[in-house]
Each structure stands twice: as C-alpha cells, then as structure tokens.
Amino acid sequence: MKKRPSNTSSQSAHTHGHFIPEQARLFSNDELPIKVTWPNPDTWPEKVLRLLLAGNHLTQPQMGFDSWRLGAHINVLKKMGFPIVSMPVANPNGGRCIAEYFFSAADIAVLRASRGRGDYGG
Questions:
Q1: Per-residue confidence at 121, pLDDT binned at 50, 70, 90?
Q2: Model confidence over 20-55: pLDDT tens digits?
Q3: What is the pLDDT of residue 21?
Q4: CATH number of this structure's domain 43-117
Q5: In the chain, at which end, N or C, are there fewer CB atoms within 10 A of the end residue's CB?
Q6: Angle at the Cα of 49 (from 16 to 35), degrees rounded to 5?
Q7: What is the pLDDT of residue 62?
C-alpha cells in the first residue's frame, strides 16, 4: 500500500503570497528574509535589477529590447530569488495588456541592506 503524501511543503510563505513586506524590519541584517543570488556584473539581468532597485516600474516598450523580452530577464532574476512583482497594464501601443515589473518598497529596502553588506555582485 502506498503512503499518503504529507501536507507539509518546503516552499516558503513568500512564494505562496503570504509574505508581509513589513516583516523585513523584524530581522537583523544578518537574518534577511530574502535570500538571493546576485547576477554577474554587466549582464542584462544585472542592469534590469539596478533599474528595479532604483524604484523604477519597467515595461517591455520602455526597455526596447530587440532580441530578448524583458520578461526573460525578469524570469532569470525571479529564479535567482528576487521577489519581483508583475502587474498587467495597458499597452501604450494599443492591443492587449502588457506586464509592468517592480519591487515593493519594503523589498527594495531589504535588498539594498543586503547589497550594503557586500552581497552584491555575485
């Protein structure tokens, strides 16, 4: 007889949408709630990350990539652990909605604190 699967999950509350950004201030800089792998310098994911950390909201038409979609770079950053928010917005060129990508203000603060500890750059 097969064993019944357990209801425990190895995923964090952050990946299930139960993460509260204000939790960031409950942790010291040594216990940051966001664990990321920083992209290599002078790569497109690193350039996109810098724009997002500056508080920018990015869309494909703003970036103007010819070969890669902005979403591809965002996907790379998400796989590295970055909690990028995406929201559908009207396409300025008409047609169907497009995605707008950004960090919450609380996540920017946590990531900047992490970068300040020397974790940025690989």
A1: very low
A2: 555 555 554 455 567 899 999 999 999 999 999 999
A3: 55
A4: 1.10.10
A5: N
A6: 45
A7: 86
Q: How many residues does the chain have?
A: 122
Measure the N-to-C terminal CA separation of the chain; round to a whole number of Å. 48
Task: Evaluate if pTM is beyond 0.70.
Answer: no
Candidates 74, 12, 13, 88; CA nearest to 44 is 74
State the Cα angle at 21 between 35 and 84, rounded to 5°: 60
Residue 101's beta-bridge partner residues?
58, 86
17-23-27 Cα angle (round to 5): 130
Q: For residue 34, give both structure tokens.
A: 């966001």
| Token output for 1 | 């007889």
Tokens of 87: 């929201």
- Inter-CA distances, 7 with 4, 10, 11, Å: 9, 10, 12
Per the model's pLDDT, the better-predicted residue between 35 and 17 turns out to be 35
Those residues with Cβ within 8 angstroms of residue 40's Cβ, 6 or more apart along the chain or in another chain:
46, 122
